[in-house]
Amino acid sequence: MRKETTITAKTLEEALEKAAAELGAPSVDELEYEVLEEAKKGLFGIGAVPAKIHASYRKSGVTLALEFLTRLTQDMGLQVTMEVRDGTNDDKVIAIDGDNAGILIGHHGDTLDALQYLANLAANKKTDGEKREYVKITIDVENYRAKREETLRALARRMAARVLRYKKSVMLEPMNPYERRIIHSEIQGIEGCSTNSIGSEDNRKIVIFLDDRSAAAHATPVEEEPDFSDQELY
């Protein structure tokens, strides 16, 4: 939602500061403004003209996502801190830490993924036909994303070793697109193995198979439930 105001003050700087305070902007850098009248000092204070501006402020997508997450965690009774940083894929990462923050992760990150989906909806919601630049939000809790990625890469290496040893393809449990990309990426660096995804979008699984097509053609897929017993995260 866009807010607007007209401010008069002795100087342009003072007018901008007042506008930021009135509109709830975190800093004057977040404002869009037009100078309606330039400030003039006059002679010995006589004939001085104040600065007059028309300023507007629209909350950024990151701010909207933070507000959503703050309300949610407060309603859940959680004491957490949030930090925003630049991601590696043109995204903004909101890192959440604090006592009992792990409840936001869920089984294999299911709750975290749902939370991230809702945060992106909040960040990119448009009202009154406004134009808003799309922002991609990634939510991380207690560095879970990095831990989960290492777990998946270790899983990919173990399953590739099994495929190479027994000459049979292996089918992993269903994963979301982000996790499947990690598996595909890790297997690409292992000579003799390849991957493919099968199944519907909500139930897509990765098959790891021998790179030798003739061998892969006779290989029997084996349903494989990954063993996370020594690497389980929450």
Low-confidence region ranges:
214-219, 224-234
- Indicate the percent of residues in helices: 25-40%
The CATH architecture term of the largest domain is: 2-Layer Sandwich
> What is the N-to-C succession of helices and strands?
EHEEHEEHEHEHEEHE
The main sheet comes to: 4 strands, mixed
Quick check: average pLDDT?
Answer: 86
- Please work out how many helical segments DSSP would assign: 6
The total domain count is 3
Q: Beta-sheet strand percentage?
A: 25-35%
Q: What structural class should be given to the helix and strand makeup?
A: alpha+beta
Number of strands: 10
| Dominant shape | elongated
CATH topology of the largest domain: GMP Synthetase, Chain A, domain 3
Q: Which strand order does the major sheet show? A: 8-9-7-10
Q: Kindly provide the radius of gyration, computed on alpha-carbon positions and rounded to a whole number of angstroms.
A: 27 Å
CATH homologous superfamily grouping of the largest domain: K homology (KH) domain
CATH class term of the largest domain = Alpha Beta
Distance between the termini: 38 Å
Topology summary:
Layout: E1 2-9, H1 12-23, E2 32-37, E3 51-58, H2 61-75, E4 80-86, E5 91-98, H3 110-123, E6 136-141, H4 144-166, E7 170-171, H5 177-188, E8 193-198, E9 205-210, H6 213-217, E10 222-223
Parallel strand pairs: 5-6, 7-10
Antiparallel strand pairs: 1-3, 2-3, 4-5, 7-9, 8-9
